[in-house]
Structure formats: structure tokens, C-alpha cells
């Protein structure tokens, strides 16, 4: 069976296959530009042409590898018709060629210095791929890893080819946006920008394209950032409140099928809140109810044992509501909160799932992915007003906006944080890419 590689990637990416004078390719742009698919086809094709080749693939956070680049490389192998030639190993994460013994190795860069001790027994590393480059804290962090694999001399004067792919952050002052501009002037580097509009092969489904066009109507700035890959800037308000849709009642044509809770605790100095969110048959999210306790102005603050009781009562009081007996898909809590989590388990033998938090800007972007899709609603009741007010008032610190580390003003943001935890912990259920 013969396969035309050109049929597996969009013509926009032909430069990957025909520009051998470059050893570094920076592929940036909007979501759904198919850049990751093009890279995976390229690295697998080159791997198959070199019996000694190995490919090292990196993401900042190790636990994101299996569901992203690992599956992407598998996809390329299957598309090229070589699925039976490889062994697909999960611990450690690697894909090994049964014929040559070389393969694809997947690494998290939670600690860049650990890469200095990495060894690959068979052959040499011929290519590297840093996916989601914007996740990294700095170029120095990436370069520490890169230099580990480029220092060895390759046979035949070959060069290690490195691919960098990412969606540009909203902030134009983010390090990766400025870094990409600098790379354009360096010999041996090619910087390319692509969007979903470059999908001439029509790999994207009509449904997905329609969702993109809906985002264009709902929030043009979000569309420009997410799907055109433009660094549109931060502004002052973090969220566009037009994307938070009030409801007077649950729609009859889209019933809630399951619910989730998300908790942010504060104890002595700041508030504790619990959000109850319903997920509907059409994969929308509806804020149903909010528990909110603030110790401000109170001489005697509630202890974790007392908060545990109040939170449990809040949950039990949902029983007589229309959603009261629906399955609870997840109870999410800040991973840094141990006292209340342990107290609740001691009292009720029910565990809250500690969410693995990400950079604040990443979590904000994830929330925006949900609300800009037009799938977030809230019941317009008294308890939920604190949620609306805190999101409306959530702002960037103007002193930090024109820096590569923008900060938010940390005042009355407890429901805001709880909502981030909900989105982050239920991203797969909500169909979001984090």
C-alpha cells in the first residue's frame, strides 16, 4: 500500500517537508490549525527513514503527555500504515520500533534539570518536539532541555531538528510571544503562523467550524485570540460578563444529567465558598447554587469542623431540588487545602478531589474557553449573586498588564477560584482542551 504523505497534512505546512536548511521550526497560531498533526506526520516520516533515529517529545507537565502528544504520534503512525511495527508502552511512556529498537520518548519537563541525566540506549536523538511551548516559564527552561540532546555529534553531519508548537498567549508581553519575534531574525530558524482558515484539506468537521464561527459572534476578541492566534491584549476586566448567561429556570429541552461541586476555602481571614454546577445533556454548565461564608467582621470565626457541617448541610439541602438526586460527577477542592478536606472525610467518609492547579493565566484561559463557547449559564437567584459580582469585579492589576507575568487583584475572588477549579477538574467532561 502506498500512502501520499502530502494527503495527510495541509498544503500550508509543505515547508516542513521541503526546507532542509532549517533545524528549528516554530509553529504558532490559532487552535485547530492542524499544526500538531503536520509535525507528527513529519517526525514519524523522518524516523522511518533513519534506522538509528529517536525522537524526544516534551510537554511542561508530565501528566498531560499521554492524552496529547503520545496519542498524536500514535495517530501519525497509524495514518502512515505502520501501526503493527511498534510497541506502545505506557510506563515509562514510549513507542518502540520492533525492527530497529529505537523509538519515540515522551518527557515532562516539570524539572528541566532532570533531563540532563536522560539516556537513550539505541541510536541518537534526531528530532525534538516541544508541544504547547507557552506552558513553559521561560526560554531558559526549554533551552536547558534542548542543549542536553543537541550536544552530541551526529553521523553524516546531521543536525537535530527541533519543532516548537503553541497557541500564542493573549498577553503580547508574554515571553513566548516576544521570543518568537526574535527567532525570525536568527539563521536556521523558521517561524510560521497558521489558523483554522488554512485547513484546505477540510480535516476539521463542519460542526467544529460552526462552533468557531459562533465564538466569533459571541466574543470577537476571544475568537481572534483562540482561533486566529492573535495576542489581543488583556484589558482590565478579566472576563466579558456578556458570556455569563442568566436563567430564571432550567430549560425543558436540555435537562441536567449530573452535577459537580467545587470548593475554595479561606478559614480565618477569607471566605469559603462551594459552587454547585449542573451539566446538561447538551454539555452546557449551569451554576445552580452557591454556598458562601465570609469571616469578615465576625469576632468568632468558624473552625474547619463547623465549616464541614455547614457545607454538608448545603449539599443535603439540594435533595428536594429538581437536581437533588442526580449523580455527583466530582467534588473538587483546592489541592493546597488539607484541613477542611480531612475534616470532611473524617465527618462523613466522603472525599473531595484535590485539583492539580496550573498557572493562574492558564486556568483563566480555560474558563474563557467554556464561557466563550456560549455554554455557561447561572440561575439568577439570590445565592448566586455573589458569584456574578465577584466575576464582574475580577480585574488585572494594571501595573502588571504590560509584563510577561500579569497578575490579578486578589480581592473577593473566592467564587472565581472555585469556578476555575470546577472547569479544570472537569475539562474532559466539558470537552475543553487544557
From TrEMBL:
Domain of life assignment: Bacteria
Residue intervals of the Phage terminase large subunit N-terminal domain: 25-230
Alphabetized InterPro entries for the sequence: P-loop_NTPase, Phage_terminase_lsu, Terminase_L_C, Terminase_L_N, Viral_DNA_packaging_terminase
Residue span(s) of domain Phage terminase large subunit C-terminal: 264-423
UniProt cross-references to PANTHER family, sorted A to Z: PBSX PHAGE TERMINASE LARGE SUBUNIT (PTHR39184:SF1), PTHR39184
Protein name stated in the entry: Phage terminase, large subunit
Source species: Weissella jogaejeotgali
Higher taxonomy: Bacteria, Bacillati, Bacillota, Bacilli, Lactobacillales
Amino acid at each position: 500500500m502506498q500512502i501520499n504523505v502530502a494527503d495527510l497534512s495541509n498544503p500550508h505546512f509543505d515547508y516542513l517537508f521541503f526546507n532542509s536548511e532549517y533545524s528549528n521550526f516554530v509553529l504558532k497560531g490559532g487552535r485547530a490549525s492542524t499544526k500538531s498533526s503536520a509535525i507528527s506526520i513529519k517526525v514519524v516520516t523522518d524516523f522511518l527513514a533513519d534506522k538509528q533515529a529517536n525522537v524526544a517529545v516534551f510537554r511542561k507537565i508530565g501528566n498531560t503527555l499521554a492524552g496529547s502528544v503520545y496519542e498524536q504520534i500514535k495517530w501519525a503512525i497509524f495514518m502512515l500504515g505502520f501501526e503493527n511495527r511498534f510497541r506502545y508502552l505506557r510506563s515509562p511512556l514510549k513507542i518502540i520500533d520492533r525492527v530497529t529498537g529505537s523509538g519515540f520518548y515522551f518527557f515532562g519537563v516539570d524539572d528541566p534539570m532532570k533531563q540532563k541525566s536522560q539516556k537513550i540506549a539505541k541510536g541518537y536523538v534526531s528530532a525534538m518536539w516541544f508541544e504547547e511551548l507557552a506552558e513553559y516559564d521561560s526560554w531558559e527552561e526549554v533551552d536547558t532541555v534542548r542543549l542536553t540532546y543537541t550536544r552530541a555529534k551526529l553521523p553524516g553531519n546531521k543536525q537535530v531538528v527541533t519543532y516548537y508548537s503553541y497557541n500564542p498567549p493573549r498577553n503580547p508581553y508574554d515571553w513566548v510571544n516576544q521570543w518568537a519575534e526574535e527567532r525570525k531574525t536568527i539563521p536556521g530558524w523558521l517561524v510560521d503562523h497558521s489558523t483554522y482558515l488554512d485547513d484546505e484539506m477540510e480535516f476539521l468537521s463542519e460542526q467544529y467550524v460552526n462552533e468557531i464561527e459562533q465564538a466569533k459572534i459571541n466574543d470577537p476578541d476571544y475568537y481572534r485570540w483562540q482561533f486566529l492566534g492573535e495576542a489581543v491584549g488583556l484589558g482590565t476586566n478579566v472576563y466579558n460578563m456578556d458570556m455569563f448567561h442568566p436563567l430564571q429556570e432550567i430549560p425543558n429541552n436540555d435537562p441536567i444529567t449530573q452535577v459537580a461541586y467545587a470548593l475554595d476555602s479561606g478559614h480565618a481571614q477569607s471566605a469559603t465558598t462551594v459552587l454547585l454546577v449542573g451539566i446538561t445533556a447538551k454539555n452546557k454548565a449551569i451554576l445552580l447554587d452557591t454556598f458562601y461564608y465570609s469571616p469578615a467582621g465576625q469576632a468568632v470565626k468558624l473552625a474547619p469542623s463547623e465549616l464541614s457541617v455547614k457545607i454538608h448541610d448545603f449539599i443535603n439541602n439540594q435533595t428536594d431540588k429538581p437536581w437533588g438526586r442526580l449523580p455527583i460527577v466530582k467534588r473538587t477542592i483546592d489541592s493546597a487545602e488539607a484541613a477542611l478536606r480531612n475534616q470532611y472525610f473524617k465527618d462523613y467518609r466522603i472525599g473531595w478531589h484535590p485539583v492539580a492547579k496550573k498557572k493562574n493565566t492558564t486556568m483563566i484561559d480555560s474558563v474563557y474557553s467554556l464561557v466563550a463557547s456560549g455554554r455557561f449559564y447561572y440561575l439568577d437567584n439570590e445565592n448566586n449573586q455573589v458569584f456574578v459580582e465577584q466575576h464582574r469585579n475580577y480585574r488585572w492589576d494594571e501595573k502588571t498588564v504590560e509584563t510577561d507575568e500579569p497578575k490579578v487583584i486578589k480581592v473577593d475572588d473566592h467564587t472565581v477560584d472555585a469556578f476555575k477549579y470546577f472547569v479544570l477538574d472537569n475539562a474532559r467532561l466539558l470537552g475543553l482542551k487544557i
